[in-house]
Amino acid sequence: MTGFGVLLRRELALSWGGGGGPLLALAFYAAIATLLPLAMGPEPARLAAIAPGSAWLALALASLLSLERLFERDFEDGALDLLALGPAPLELAAFAKCLAQWITAGAPLAVLAPIVAISLGAPTGLAPMIGLTALIGGIGFSFCGGIGAALSLGSRRGGVLIAVIVLPLFAPPVIFGAGAIDAYAAGLDWKTGLMLLSAYSLAALALGPFAMAAACRNALS
Amino acid sequence: MIAALTNPRAFMRFSRWAAPTLGAIATVLGAAGLWLDFAARPDYQQGYTVHIMFIHVPAAWMSLFVYGCLGVASFLGLVFRHALADAAARAAAPLGAGFTLLALATGSLWGRPMWGTWWVWDARLTSVLVLFLFYLGYMALDAAIDDEARASRACAILALVGLINLPIVHYSVVWWNTLHQGSSVFRADGPAMPLSYLAPLLTLTLAYMAAFGALWLVRIRSEVWRRRAGVLALRAAG
Fold it and tell me: Could you tell me if residue B35 is inside a domain?
C-alpha cells in the first residue's frame, strides 16, 4: 500500500508542479462556458433550458484536456519503463495516475460545474445535484480517458486521437449524468440516473487499469 | 477448419478460391434480392420507400455482425498473438464502417419522407452513430501508430473495450430516450412481415454477408501479400 501512496504522491506532485494543476482544465471549462451564450444568444430563458446539459457537455470536453500528458510524459522520459519494471504492477500505477487525474482535474471541475450551470441560468437548487454528478462522473471520465491516453502512446497524433477514441466511451456517463440532473429538476426519479452513473464510473475504475496497463506494456514492448 | 486456417499458407490456399466464390454468391444473391425487392408490392403505409428498407436493414445488421467478427478476431489476436487474426481484425474495420455508414445514410433517406426529418435522436439511431464513431476511432488509432505489431495490439485492446462499451451505450441511449420522450411511435409494431417482404430481406442479408466475406478475405490476402513483400524487400536490402 505504501507503494501506491508513493505513486499517487508522485503523480499529484507532477501535475501540480509541471502542468499547473487544475488551472488549465478550469480555464478551458470557463472559456467554453463563456463561448456558449455567445453562440446560443443571451436570452435567459433559452440559456436556462440548456444550462445543466451544456455544463455537463463542457465538463466532458474539459476532462479530455490533461489526458494527453497522463502517460506520454512518463513514456518519453523513460519513467514508464521503470514503473513497468518496478515491484508494483503497472495496473496499480495506471490506477494511481487516473486517481491523481481525478483529484487534480475532475474534482476541481466538479466544484466549478454548478457555478457554470448557475451562471448560465440553471436554478440554484440544482447546484448540489450538478456537483455530485460531476464528481461521480469525473471518475468515469478519468478512467475511461486513461484508456485512450494509454492506447495512443507512441503515436504522434496524441491529443486529437485521444478525443476520437474516448468520446464514444463518454456517451453513457453524459447520458446518465445529464439525465439524472434533468429528472431531479423535473421532480422525477433521479436516483436511477445517479446509480447508473455510479455503476459506470465504478466499472471504469475496476476495469480501466487493466486495459491501460495492457496498452502501456504494448507501447513499451 | 478454423484451426487449419491459422496457418497463413493454408489460409492463402483456401482464400484463393473462397474469396471469388463468395463474391459470385454475393452477386447472384444480390441480383435475386434486388429482383425480389422490386417485385414486391409497395407497402400500404410506406409506399415505395419500403424498398429502401431492404437495403437498410441488412446493412444495420451487418454493422453489428462485422463488429462481432472484429471483436472475435481481436480477442484471438490478443490472446494467441496470431498475426493472421490481427490482420483479420484490422481488415474488418473499414468494411464495418462502410456498412454502418450505409445503414445511417439509407435510414436518413427513408426517414425524410416517412418521419418528415433526416435525423431523429432516437435510441437506435444514436447507438448506430456511436458505433460508427467507434469504427472511426479504431481506424484512426490503427493509422496513427507506425509499428505494425504495436498498432494491432493497441487496436485489439480498443476493440475489446468497445465490445464491453457498446452494449452499455445501447442500453444507455434506450434509457435516455425513454426518459425524455416516448418515441415508440416510430416503431409501429405492425403484423408479421409478409413473405414477399421477408424473402428479399433475407436474400439481401445473405448477399451482404457473402460480400463481406469476400471483401474481408481479399483484404486479409492483400495484407498477407503486403507483409511478404515487406519481408522480401528487407531480404533484398540485405
Answer: yes
The pTM assigned to this predicted structure is 0.86
B190's CB contacts (< 8 A; 6+ apart) are: none
Q: Is the dihedral of CA A121, A126, A132, A137 positive or negative?
A: negative
- Domain locations along chain A: 2-220
Partners of A157 on chain B (C-beta within 8 Å) are 140, 144
Domain count, chain B: 1
Kindly report, residue by residue over B179-206, the tens digit of the pLDDT: 544 433 344 454 456 677 778 888 888 9
Nearest to A20 by CA among A52, A84, A65: A65
In three-state secondary structure terms, B43 is strand
Asked if residue B192 is part of any domain, the answer here is no
Q: Are A127 and A172 in contact (CB under 8 A)?
A: no
Check: complex ipTM more than 0.90: no
Residues in B whose CB is inside 8 Å of some CB of A read 130, 133-134, 136-137, 140-141, 144-147, 150, 153-154, 157-158, 160-162, 164-165, 168-169, 172-173, 175-176, 179-180
